[in-house]
Amino acid sequence: MNPITKAIRIQTDRTNEMEHSTPLFLTSSFCFDDAEDMRAAFADESNDNIYSRFSNPGVQEFTDKMVALEGAEAGYATATGMAAVFASFMALLKKGDHLISCSSVFGSTVTVLNKYLPNYGIEVSYVSANDVASWQAAIKPNTKMIYLETPTNPGLDIIDLDFVSKLAKQHNILLNVDNCFATPVNQRPIDFGADLVIHSATKWIDGQGRVLGGVVLGKKELIQQIYLFCRSTGPALSPFNAWVLSKSLETLDVRMERHASNALHIAKALEGHAKISWLKYPFLQSHPQHAIAVKQMKNGGGLISFNLSGGLESGRAFLNNLKMLSLTANLGDTRSIASHPASTTHAKLTEEERLAVNITPGLIRISVGLEHVDDILGDILGALEQC
Fold first, then answer.
1. According to the model, what pLDDT value does residue 220 have?
2. CA 296, CA 186: separation in Å to the nearest integer?
3. Of the four listed, 46, 84, 165, 362, which is most buried by Cβ atoms within 10 Å?
């Protein structure tokens, strides 16, 4: 079956009630028929559920669907996207190791890389998303992992997964890709050689701004190490959130088609606007990495970034004059969202650090929703008039 079909049809075994939709398994623990079954479960001789911090039927259903969509061998679901990011680092890196990261990554990820990994003796270097040819020079004898986002947050740079994967394999380095912005129905990094793929399921996978969640997918032996780390440290996905996310996956493909078609229409309409100095959308021919985007993505996704010529004050005026778009710290919702990364998601970076990754004072990120495209565009154009 096609992965999209699997995301709809994979389901926990029916109970005696013969339900059509998977029930919620809101339980902290699970029972055993006898002492031998209980012993075997704790000895990892069976796949029986023990405790919902370890595993849960609903969480496993969601994970299995994500495994199918990404073409992975295995996966582990976490409480949030950042829990997935952190677990992928801590389970697979140790004191003395070196990690290379794309310079354009989510603000909280930067905090983990800059503030916390050095406390464990893990060295971090940054490389430009726009110059992957220079990544070779960043590799050291102790380099164990390359971590990147594509498209990047919030600048929507596109990184050539095929190139980076070949580089990583040449040096026996793990390639860890945050695929949150693209989603697995739009881009499958494992097909290009990635060892691990990470998602904040809070975003497009939920798609309606309801619950938090994350997931790590990839090679079975790597996921086993991440599972053991998470089993002991506790960032388990809530069974309720897993139930919501599993149902959300059944509509992910059709939702992302509408998000992308709306975004492309709006990007074309805004390109060249007098108040905008530059605009990025992966499937516009003007995007610097358009050819790479077309090679590895099914469509351009649901995000647009542009810079207001008037800088910070224009950015504030734009946000304050929106009538319909939401101002909220999220993306990937049915409802369109506008944000100002320099003062929100990347506010903890210094101005120098922000400018180094093209997060300018006038940068606006639009998460294009499922409203009628004319209404979304009309609200954006109306706010631009006031900048």
1. 98
2. 8
3. 84
